[in-house]
Amino acid sequence: MLATTLDRRVGRSNAATRNDALIGRSAQRAGWAGIALERAARDLDAAKGADGNALSGLAEIVRDEATRVSNLAEEIESRSSAPRSRPIGPASARRMGREFS
User: Fold this and answer.
1) Cβ proximity of 51 and 37 under 8 Å
2) CA distance 45 to 54
3) CA-CA distance, 92 to 6, in Å (whole number)?
4) From CA 17, how far away is CA 15, in angstroms rounded?
5) Which of the pair, 89 or 43, is modelled with greater confidence?
6) Each residue of 14-55: pLDDT tens digit?
7) Does position 101 have pLDDT exceeding 50, yes or no?
8) What DSSP string describes the chain?
9) In 3D, which of 71, 86, 76, 85 has the Cα closest to residue 34?
10) Do 37 and 65 touch, CB atoms closer than 8 A?
11) pLDDT tens digits, 52-83
12) pTM score, two decimals?
């Protein structure tokens, strides 16, 4: 009977570890998406449309989305029982005074 109880505990531990790994990986990927959007916004700031007008309005929208995605990455990470100690997106970098390039 004791062996059955131990096996269940090990199974739960393995499931929790796997769950934390999946949460961490999805948070990391969402963080990367936020970084990619932030870089796209930076490129759009320097670009002009076919009509010669600046694309800064579009860049601002993309930058807002980058912040949202970065915040989602942090929210995903907060669901893990083993949180990361490093930033995972552009919003984290701005709070830490760093810039992704």
Assistant:
1) no
2) 7
3) 40
4) 5
5) 43
6) 888 899 999 999 999 999 999 999 999 999 999 999 998 999
7) no
8) -HHHHHHHHHHHHHHHHHHHHHHHHHHHHHHHHHHHHHHHHHHHHH-B-TTS-B-HHHHHHHHHHHHHHHHHHHHHHHTSSS--SS--SHHHHHHTT----
9) 71
10) yes
11) 899 999 999 999 999 999 999 999 999 888 75
12) 0.67
Q: Which amino acid makes up residue 64?
A: D
Which tokens hold the place of 84?
A: 């990361």
Note whether 101 and 83 are within 8 A (CB).
Answer: no
* Residue written as token pair 């998406």: 33
> Any idea of the CA torsion for 76, 80, 84, 85, to the nearest 10 degrees?
100
